[in-house]
Amino acid sequence: DWSSDSRSLAFTVLGDRNENLLHFMANAFWEPLNFEIPPDRRAWQRTIDTFLDAPDDITLGEDAPMVETPFYTV
Question: Strand pairing partners for 12?
Answer without folding.
Answer: 23
